[in-house]
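ok so i was messing around last nite and threw this chain in just to see what happens. nothing serious, just curious
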Amino acid sequence: MTHLFNRLLTSLTVLMGVIVIGFVLIQVAPADPAAVRAGASGTAEEIAEIRTEMGLDRPVAVQLGLYVWRLAHLDLGRSMISSQPVSGEIASTIGPTVELMLASVVWSIPLAIALGVLAAYRRGRWVDRLVMLVSVCGVSLPVFWIGMLLIQTVGGAGWLPYLGRSGPLWTLDGLLSIALPAITLGSVLIGPVARITRTAVIETLGADYVRTARAKGAGEGRILLRHALRNAWLPIVTLVGLQVGNLLGGAVVTEQIFSWPGVGRMAVSAIFSGDYPLAQGAILVTAVGFLIINLAVDMLYAALDPRGSKQ
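result:
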């Protein structure tokens, strides 16, 4: 419980930092939110009236205090473009983003771990070199390049749709429309996870308990899965947690490339249109998602290695 409390306290501190930094960045942005709301035909008097209505004529510290107070009451404000609640706008886009992340993780993590174990077991052979070549390519190639390549080849040939979301994940149209975005986003996980799995399994394969298991006649499959991979989980889980958190950043690029209606695409659109309340809400939700993922990984890490949580 102490470990959980410390992690929650750290997460809340980080979240407060994100709120303050996001608020300050919006304050120094060149666009005037009141002018954006007034539109191109807005007069100086109308802009001044809107500034008063939005509280923009108050000191920055007061504005920050009021913003935090609204957040404490789960009020993210209203979009300056659509005049709809920001929470409603985010609620309509968070589902596709979660779908995309789940679809990316569900195939890439098991495949990366399997490739890492195979490379460690066949260390120094052509299989090992091939897996390392694939992992280096996965680490080196940017996500937008992989997406554009898939659009040009698979999408251009008409094999799979590459624009938009055709339906929920549990429908055939939804599965087809999410295939290319999920392959693009998941491909960035294969390289680092396969490499760390290979390194961790190689270390455990040389341990005394593995040699003892072999001396007792245990099969290679049992040695790999029960003795080597089981004791190599800590670095793998740590890296997977960090990489899944980084998927939030990759999802922004992937959603833009494939016109996927997620939070990342909405945030980019809000920033370019000067809809700062919506942009602030998207940044805040993304930060909360990242903190939740890291908190879950910390708890899993403590469950796998209770000694680490006591340090």
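not much to say yet. The chain is about 80% helix and 0% strand.
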